[in-house]
Amino acid sequence: MPGREYEKAIELAADQHGYLTTAQALELGISRDTLRKMAKRGALERVSWGVYRVPTFPLSPLGQYMEACLWPAGPVGVISHQSALAIRDLSDVNPSKVHITLPRGFRVRRKVPGHLSIHHADLSDEEIGSEEGILTTTVRRTIEDCFRAHLGPALLRQAIEDGRRLGYLRSEEARELERLVLP
Fold it and tell me: Which of 17, 23, 141, 150 has the fewest CB atoms within 10 Å, counting from its CB?
């Protein structure tokens, strides 16, 4: 029979596509030692420094994004750039890495996993949205970031059109973006 700590971990992970962090566990009263024991028994799977996954949860197509958001072990990362387009299925973009944005002042003091691309910006609350419980930059901010990162005009045009069609962008907002980012 699972213990109270495991039940707390399950409850938290249920809202995060099966993932939780050491810091979150500590806030719930689960000690580092208990986390290590759960991982050793296979009740948790350590996926990166400070991030665990509950293996009884089915793998989610969005799991990689949640893992990326939780990885920084400080502020929560925000899915951005091409990854924020991909998570919303805007355009045919297929990024090879998961892009996350962290606050400008936050410096990662450990090796960045090869599947992540880190960006730094101080995002306002108006520039942060959510897709299925995962923090992402808003569609407008995403398209602007992709333009600054030199994403091709065909993909930018498609992202704007898809954003308008799917209701992420108002017509006026889409026209403003077209003037800003398209040649």
Answer: 150
